[in-house]
Each structure stands twice: as structure tokens, then as C-alpha cells.
Amino acid sequence: MVDESAVGENESEASPKSVVRLCDQCRKEPFKYKCPRCLFRSCSLQCSKHHKEQHN
What we know:
Layout: E1 33-34, E2 41-42, H1 45-55
Antiparallel strand pairs: 1-2
């Protein structure tokens, strides 16, 4: 007989709350800011300015 209680235990390890979203510009650091127009995520003033220059 197979113990079915162990099935799916590993699925809970990568819960959505533990996923870190990276900066959409540099993809190196977790984001800190969101663009109010398009919700673009950026980690720094430099990345935010770069986004504004490209999309404004």
C-alpha cells in the first residue's frame, strides 16, 4: 500500500509568498518601486529613470 499523505508535500515549498520578484530593468535585484502607469517594477532610481526615458 502506498502512503498518499506524502504526495504533494514538495509543492508547498515554493509558495507564492516566498517568490522574490526581480527588477524588470536589470533583473539583478528585488524590485522596490512600481511605475504608476504600467506597473513596471524597478529596484533603484537608476533603473526607474531608464524605464522613464524608454517609455515616456
